[in-house]
Specification:
By secondary structure, the chain is mainly alpha-helical. It has ten helices and no strands.
Length: 188
Amino acid sequence: MTNFVTHDLDTAPEAAKPILKRALNDYGFLPNLYGAMAEAPAILEGYTTLSAIFGKAKLSETERQIILMTNNRMNGCAYCMAAHTTLSQMGGVAKDVVEALRNDTPIANPKLEALRQFAIAINESRGWPSNTQTQAFLEAGYTRQTMLEVILGTALKTMSNYTNHIAETELDKAFTPNVWTGHAKDAA
């Protein structure tokens, strides 16, 4: 056990405080993930910056959440599965899509399922999808740009998922209605 501190505005290093204040302002509470990342202000800044950049990707909210939640599940991150279930609900992602992502079942919409499958391929292959996987993704109506945006989302989730693993981040009260327990059997 590494005994990470979940920082607040009083205990956080000075470089992390402006980011934590912004998060508190934006969310109305300070997510424990941010409190854990505050131990290393650079990762907190990197994560929040990359998250904002990913929000600018040429993807719908549903498509972004498919990439993020697929990686959360594959990396076995219970914290991020609960958090992104909540964010998906708030963002209008269809309930059947959220359930498919949480349960590792196919999404009924073929194009969205192709995105989920490609996100799986990128994660499992560590960025070496097969020609067949790449072709199926393109044939579903996605582009080379989308391929790179899947990598961007995967990088973002690597930062948060791995932080939660080593910090053993406690789930925030706001996310507890969507607790996820599939992590032990699903993690690679």
